[in-house]
Amino acid sequence: MAQRWKNAPPGAHWGEFGPDDQRGRLNLVTPTKVMQGIAEVREGRTFCLSLPLDVPGGQVMNPRRIAPRRYAVLRDGRSAGEQGFCWSYEGEDPELTDVVNDDMVLMSLQYSTQWDSLAHVGSRFDADGDGVPEMVFYNGFRAGDDIRAGRVDASAAEPFARYPGPEARALGIERLAEHGVQGRGVMIDLEHHVGRVRQAVGYDALMRVLEADAVEVEAGDLVCLHTGFADTLLAMNRQPDVQRLHETGTGLDGWDPKLLNWIVDAKLACLLADNPAVELVVPKLQTPTPMRRPRLPLHEHCLFKNGIPLGELWYLTELATWLRAHRRTRFLLTAPPLRLPGAVGSPATPIATV
Fold first, then answer.
1. Quick check: 54 and 238 in contact, CB under 8 A?
2. Which partner from 3, 39, 299, 334 sits 20 to 30 angstroms from 314, CA to CA?
3. Phi and psi of 114, rounded to 5°?
4. Which pLDDT does position 76 carry in this prediction?
């Protein structure tokens, strides 16, 4: 297939794994990296790195994302809507002993612990070289052609159902799932050094943390950032205090060019954090001459420019505490997203094994 762009964004690595690549730097998680992760298993102890799927709770943290709603599957006769009944494909049968429960769920795929696919964030950029910015994604895949919006259903009963059928024909979350996200995880414990305060961590501060804890990040590593945010959120028991959360936990400084360069030069395969965005989100600055720029510069840098998947709202506190007590920073990480074709994100239940 012919290359789909003439210009690549500044600081981008489009084409690094071929012009049609849809996995980005997850390609660096090779069989060798998987074996390195397995070599970190010494005790066979596992840690669940996922929040409960119904956390945060409600929609105050993000009004666009709905919490899980569970329903009983549709059945006929007396069993309709019930749990714990005898069944046959022809209906209820008193001679059968099977007791069956089925249910279904409706939720935003990026409500709780989640993966962002490379189709999650793109940018308006002149990839054609004609002077007109297009809406494009990693490796030049196009909005409208490769990443398609849902159709309009004006008769939908609920607002979330008004745009059925969106589809990422390229860069969807299934590309990560097909690769199999398993390899060597590396913990960077920002909370231990900075505390649970709102602070943007740039390159210099991050390097001090890595040096203090003897953390080494190598090509293909799955890097986890512990800030304590998810632990604070979990303690709120599905009643999130937005003001307190706004003051809780660090995030990377997406405006620090030295930090962005390090992320690329370190050749890490993905960035995972226990906060909502990996980076520290700041309000849009108002100036007399506003500059055209992204609201989420680290998302643009990782997802759009360099094909680095992001994970958000992971639960890392118990693992980080154990690793520190045992003077370790590495572990086996197994974290596949759902293999849901066309989706731009996915819930995750990552497991760390030490």
1. yes
2. 39
3. -150, 160
4. 66
